[in-house]
Amino acid sequence: MAGPTWWLDILPLSLLAGVIGLDVVSFPQAMISRPIVAATLGGAFVGAPVAGLVCGAALECLALEALPVGASRYPEWGSASVVAGAVAATGAPAGAMPLAGAFAVAVALGITTAWIGGLSMIKHRQIIASFARPRLGQLAAGNRQTVVGLQVFGMTLDLVRAALLGALCFIPGHLLAERVNGRWSVPEDLSRAIVVTCVAAVAAASVWKDFHAISGTRRLFLISLAVGTLMVVLGA
Amino acid sequence: MPEKIVGAEALPSDALRTDTVSMPAVGIASVPEMDTGLRLSMYLRCLAIQGSWNYEILVGNGVGFCVEPALRQLPGGIDGRLYREALAR
Questions:
Q1: Could you tell me which of A183, B34, B53, B75 has the fewest CB atoms within 10 Å of its CB?
Q2: CA A109 to chain centre
Q3: Chain A contacts of B41, Cβ < 8 Å?
Q4: Closest to B61 (Cβ–Cβ): which among A25, A126, A147?
Q5: How many CB pairs lie under 8 A apart between chains A and B?
Q6: Per-residue pLDDT of chain A (236 residues; tens, 9 = 90+)
Q7: How far is A227 from A230, CA to CA, in rounded Å?
Q8: Strand partners, B58
Q9: What is the chain B residue with the closest CA to A139?
Q10: Residue A170 near residue A83, CB atoms below 8 Å
Q11: Of A13, A157, A165, A156, which Cα lies nearest the Cα of A76?
Q12: Does B51 touch chain A (CB under 8 A)?
């Protein structure tokens, strides 16, 4: 009799979370850490990309609110979305929507992991500063090894931070999603509607804020909405 | 043609340097060409510019990391005084 094999996913998922977490700030900021991409990848790694995509769309609505610039402190949505996308795929066959229980757990876990990830980023930056402090003299002297070494240290630490975060949050998340799937009694449509309404409210508030802050946003929003609606209608 | 500064003849020879460190007043024509490999190297490093971002020296080390390949072309090379001074800036 074959035992559970979900733990085999921990290593690839934590590596993916590490790479995606690295993309948030350190390297290369190619937007693969946006929830809609990262969660889809997380779902794909455990065999259910559509479940990951649906979860990623929900998390993207929440992530719209954060503006990650400069020294601002914000949730780390990259590795959190990988974890959430993989958890949303619990029990879902490839190409199918996520099960209602797993979807609810995944969104809640995504928010929690992003919050913990944000705190870990602050700690990460403090560790880099403490690593750099004794070497300020060498930096001021233009020492090449110190400059390159500090950069490599920072990026490596970020990779390890995000990978650990991914592994540590995926394990309890997956176990919880399995249990919740078995006991979930709220109708699937109602469950999804509640989650989607909550995240849509946050997204609407974020977009409304942008309407008043950035010129041309309304026009771009309407064009995007029209194109998106057309694609959904044509694809249906 | 460079603009002539009135009274410059009376100043010490190093008084017209552009900053407080010893940057040589080299002409535009003496700036070496950057080949494609060097540009690519700097571009890739630019993607990692925030790799060592922290609350004390901010992005300063990242900027040094990005321009470091180009600084190797300064007179004296990687062991030269100009290279170290530029990297320190």
A1: A183
A2: 10
A3: none
A4: A147
A5: 79
A6: 456 788 889 999 999 999 999 999 999 999 999 999 999 999 999 999 999 999 999 999 999 988 888 788 899 999 999 999 999 999 998 889 999 999 999 999 999 999 999 999 999 999 999 999 999 999 999 999 999 999 999 999 999 999 999 999 999 999 999 999 999 999 999 999 999 999 999 999 998 988 888 889 899 999 999 999 999 999 86
A7: 5
A8: B54
A9: B88
A10: yes
A11: A165
A12: yes
Structure tokens at A34: 């946006």
H and E: helices and strands count for chain B: 3, 0
Integer CA distances (angstroms), A173 to A18, A23, A42, in order: 17, 23, 13
Distance CA B87, CA B84 (A): 5
Rounded Cα distance between A42 and A124, Å, is 23
Considering only CB atoms, A142 lies closest to which of B47, B52, B84, namely B84
Cα distance between residue A106 and residue A59, in whole Å: 9
Say whether residue B47 is in contact with chain A using an 8 A CB cutoff.
yes
Look up residue A191 and give its two tokens: 């469950």
Q: Do A142 and B47 touch (CB under 8 A)?
A: no
User: Token pair for residue A178?
Assistant: 């399995």
- Spell out which residues of chain B touch residue A152, defining contact as CB-CB under 8 Å: 51
A144 touches chain B (CB under 8 A): yes
Helix B60-71 × helix B81-88 angle, to 10° = 150
Structure tokens at A135: 């070497």
**Which of A102, A89, A68 has the alpha carbon at shortest distance from A178?**
A102
Question: Can the peptide bond before residue A28 be classed as cis, meaning omega within 30 degrees of 0?
Answer: yes
Question: Which residues of chain B have a CB within 8 Å of the CB of A28?
Answer: 47-48
Amino acid identity for residue A72 in this structure: S
